[in-house]
What we know:
Largest sheet: 7 strands, antiparallel
Structural class: alpha+beta
Radius of gyration: 18 Å
Bound molecules: fe (ii) ion
Strand content: 25-35%
Mean pLDDT: 80
Shape: globular
Number of strands: 10
Helix content: 25-40%
CATH topology of the largest domain: Jelly Rolls
Number of helices: 5
Number of domains: 2
Distance between the termini: 12 Å
CATH superfamily of the largest domain: Jelly Rolls
Amino acid sequence: xxxxxxxxxxxxxxxxxxxxxxxxxxxxxxxxxxxxxxxxxxxxxxxxxxxxxxxxxxxxxxxxxxxxxxxxxxxxxxxxxxxxxxxxxxxxxxxxxxxxxxxxxxxxxxxxxxxxxxxxxxxxxxxxxxxxxxxxxxxxxxxxxxxxxxxxxxxxxxxxxxxxxxxxxxxxxxxxxxxxxxxxxxxxxxxxxxxxxxxxxxxxxxxxxxxxxxxxxxxxxxxxxxxxxxxxxxxxxx
Length: 238
Ligand SMILES: [Fe+2]
């Protein structure tokens, strides 16, 4: 069992043991083997999802057909038991967004991430340097896809416009392609929104760019230090 699987198992046990009240009777009858089985099911579902994502990209390339296959794989993963294990979230982009790597995590590896967005806190317009598919688990989210009007030659300045805007709910998905088509911003419209994403490469270990639409200023955020990056991914399957 990989280190990620062991950690997921332990996390699931902690979550299961923290239940109380009306669930006490159920908890008393739940055996450790049941908990382990559920955790294993989640781990298997994650592995199946990643395998399908690899197959889709290998067979179809970074195409709309591949994105739709990955979207279908994420919809199956969303139904797997225990996928809501949400410990170890780290801040992402500021603005209340947070994320956790569920699988992958190598700099140039397909990476599965669980992300959380809070209402009233829009992420900056940003990129990830890669394609991705996002599947909404819970809540409602405003997703805005942006596009550059300039040629992209000035790394410190960009002229942007909205390409499209969508309100996404549970079961909805959106995808974007490799740069320069990966500019977007997100915001939960009610409470908290949760989503699963598969990225073409680990967005936490690549250079990010943040865009100020009013001034056109582009801010570059380099990857975190190697030690920090390692720490961020220390529970992912390597
Ligand atoms: Fe993003």
